[in-house]
Design brief:
By secondary structure, the chain is of the alpha/beta class. It has helices at 6-19, 140-159, 198-214, 233-242, 276-286, 288-291, 301-332, 368-375, 377-398; strands spanning 31-41, 44-51, 58-62, 67-73, 75-77, 90-99, 102-109, 113-121, 129-137, 175-181, 219-223, 247-254, 264-269, 337-345, 357-364. It is elongated and about 65 Å long. The chain starts with 5 loop residues before the first helix and ends with a helix. The relative contact order is 0.14.
């Protein structure tokens, strides 16, 4: 299903690979984080983590909003979950698995800051290893200089690392379907009324869909993630493009301020949202990179615009066809759908210019009935089965 000719696709893939080079990872047992605390010293704020081993770390700064991002080997967080998270210049912090063997800690800071020092102290007087970072206020111009310097250091390190090989589609498989479980790792997604994490629901459904398609000889399903790992939105798109995918399906669960809203919805790409509700949901989904501490400044808006203009008009037609096949299959499986169930919005994860892509919001995790269904293995299986049938119907219609 080539929408581009092979040469042009190769050029575009090279551009995206340069924008999304992977950072190095560590392959060691998880390090325990036993305590986290913050302290004030004049106009300085100190953030401290007590750890069972000496950690390697990479640190960088991000603006809009202001954040300090710390990547470390995989951490086992045993510190008090209820410890204060707002003190001095630090407004909040969060942590989670960023990718295999790599954890990420993100500090939300209240304005531009200067990093005075980062130190790992050895065990002494009964205390374990201590990682700490001292920060103080600075002006916007100085902050942006440090952001740029640290970004250049990081990019130089990333570009010196070997590139990930392009995934080849096995010859015996006919259709490559990339299944994307939304959110993950440091980004939990929406949180249901009973405490259900969207990232867990999406992964469970994605794995069930993967299992169904794996049993069909003419399908080659690929999961963007198969564990509780964070992936930047552009990395999810790149998985599909590197695999020369015939289809990209992103699985999510809605959350909205109206607890009475429920039902599944299928989205396709549009720069203009079909309605206010669609715009709100796309806005929330697109915040994933901010939550995960992803540097978006390296993305070239001009190139991205060219990609969309060149290819997405035709691709979007295929995406709409797929969306309109998924909805009736969900209804057959007794999955409640929203009125006006096919909607349009500017989801970043749908922007692969040459891969038909849909985002399936499987229900409202903010609604008690939908949350219960999404948490059940039976409900997850019904959703996965419906999508699998629609996938077969789609390929039968476009390639009979």
């Amino acid at each position: 299903m080539d929408i581009f000719n092979r040469f042009f696709r190769t050029v575009l893939l090279a551009l995206l690979l340069l924008a999304g080079a992977a950072a190095s990872t560590w392959a060691s047992p998880a390090i325990d984080v036993t305590e986290v605390r913050m302290g004030l010293h004049g106009n300085r704020t100190r953030f401290v983590m007590e750890m069972s081993e000496k950690p390697a770390f990479n640190l960088f700064l991000l603006a809009n909003p202001y954040r300090i991002v710390i990547d470390m080997p995989e951490l086992d967080w045993k510190a008090n979950e209820n410890a204060p998270r707002n003190r001095g210049l630090i407004e909040n912090y969060r942590y989670g698995l960023f990718k295999k063997n790599t954890s990420r800690v993100v500090l939300d800071v209240k304005g531009p800051v200067e990093i005075l020092r980062t130190v790992v102290l050895p065990p002494t007087a009964g205390k374990p290893y201590r990682f700490f970072i001292d920060i103080k206020p600075t002006d916007q111009a100085s902050f942006m200089i440090e952001v740029k310097e640290r970004r250049e250091q990081r990019l130089a390190s990333e570009l010196s690392a070997p590139q990930q090989p392009v995934v080849e589609t096995p010859a015996e498989r006919k259709y490559t379907v990339v299944i994307d479980a939304g959110h993950g790792g440091i980004d939990p997604g929406a949180i249901g009324r009973s405490g259900t994490y969207e990232k867990n629901v999406t992964l469970a459904i994605a794995k069930k869909l993967f299992a169904i398609l794996s049993k069909k000889p003419n399908y080659h399903p690929i999961l963007t993630r198969d564990d509780d790992t964070f992936l930047a939105l552009r990395e999810r798109v790149n998985v599909a493009r590197q695999a020369n995918a015939d289809m990209f399906i992103s699985i999510h669960a809605d959350s909205i301020s109206r607890p009475d809203f429920r039902g599944a919805t299928v989205y396709t790409l549009s720069e203009t949202a079909s309605d206010d509700e669609a715009a709100e949901i796309a806005h929330d989904a697109n915040k994933s990179d901010v939550i995960g501490g992803v540097d978006l400044s390296a993305q070239d808006d001009t190139v991205q615009g060219i990609l969309i203009d060149l290819a997405q008009r035709e691709t979007m037609n295929f995406s709409v066809r797929l969306a309109e096949m998924i909805l009736p299959e969900l209804a057959k499986s007794k999955i409640k759908t929203r009125g006006r169930s096919h909607r349009f919005a500017g989801f970043r994860v749908l922007k692969a210019p040459d891969v038909p892509s849909v985002l399936v919001e499987t229900g409202y995790i903010s609604n008690r009935e939908d949350e219960k269904m999404l948490n059940s293995s039976a409900g997850q299986a019904r959703i996965a089965g419906a999508i699998a049938r629609a996938v077969s119907d789609y390929f039968n219609s476009v390639d009979p």
